[in-house]
Amino acid sequence: MKNDPIYDLHPSGSDAAAQGADKSIAPGKEQLSYPALLPRRGSRFVKRMYWPRIVGMGLALVMVAAALRQVGAPPWAWGLMVVNGLLWPHIAYLWAIRSDSPYDAEHRNLLFDSACGGFWLVAIGFNLVPSVLMLTMLCMNNVSVGGARLLFRGLMSIVIGALVGLPLFGGYLELASSLHVIVASIPFMVTYPVFVGVISYRLSQQLSQQKRRFEALSQRDALSGLATRGYWEIRLNEEFSRARRHSRPATLVLADIDYFKRINDTHGHLLGDTVIRLIGGLLEEQTRAVDFVGRYGGDEFALVLPETPVGNALKVAQRIQTALAEVTVSEQPGFSMTVSIGIAELSPQVSSPREWMSWADQALYEAKSSGRNCIRIFDGDIAKKMAV
Predict the structure, then answer these.
(1) pLDDT, tens digit (0-9, with 9 covering 90-100), for 89-122
(2) Contact between residue 357 and residue 381 where contact means Cβ atoms under 8 Å apart
(3) SS3 for 217-276, per residue?
(4) pLDDT by residue (tens digit) across 279-338?
(5) What is the torsional sign of CA 316, 322, 325, 328?
(6) Which CATH class is domain 229-387?
(7) Of 62, 106, 268, 273, whose CB count within 10 A is highest?
(8) This prediction's pTM
């Protein structure tokens, strides 16, 4: 957590492995297939479809069995129904999960489900209640997975399945559903949509969590732990608008690591990375929760201090330099680091966040031109230099 320094006067309320497959190898050595080591596309999709298919096929079996009994279907149809209802979900899973492209294989499984549905529509004489339920659930599955394209292909598969069944069952009609068929259809009608809904809800929650993680990653610089430049600029614009709207003070601070290129060239980039991490952590410690700190460039950091007059911002900058002077680097005894700091208060003359940033940047330039490890506040003299 951030500290609450003395200037808190007005608290505010506001996958690369695949690329390695092209690398050359020494003669006589077996080449590894890097893509084979990666999860195949669609494996999770196949696993998500496994239990819904088991439940759906099992409940549909009860419903179709009742309808087959009503129409007096031949014995072989009962055996085929048991295979389709109880064995097919496991066969479909194994076939897809072992496929070179599980995603495409699972799409083929869904089309086969549709073809089977068409076959059983003919077998039960288009018995009204189970026929409507099967068509609805099959279309729901296809459109939720593959949109209109898979919906259309699924409908074509239903027609094909029906055409296969017509010569076998004679194309008779038994539209009226008996009471026992209606009762047998209730579990499928109630349970399967609820089951699919629960799975969809869990999936949406997982996607929401992943989205939040991706957003956090895109907003946070991995090395310093601070905000990225893009996200920091968004917050800069927000604070500019807020301070202008409510006529509140705000100050912008830019800090640049002195001689950072020399640090990298002399001590190596690992130590340079350590310096970035240390300064990032120090800036977080020396600012309030309402302040917003970001890594603006390779060796440059930016701070937006809401509700902070320029005098208090100066105290913050001085405290940062004092704390930095006490930082030690275990990997490099005797090593020290300093920063130059430029400060610009949000005055009525600032017309935009871009101009505010330009003022702070010019103050930083003056600090570095004055020998580094010092602080400069944008004032009239600096403004005159900018005008030249």
Answers:
(1) 999 999 999 999 999 999 999 999 999 999 999 9
(2) no
(3) HHHECCCCCCECHHHHHHHHHHHHHHHHHHCCCEEEEEEEECCHHHHHHHHCHHHHHHHH
(4) 999 999 999 999 999 999 889 999 999 999 999 999 999 999 999 999 988 878 888 899
(5) negative
(6) alpha beta
(7) 106
(8) 0.60
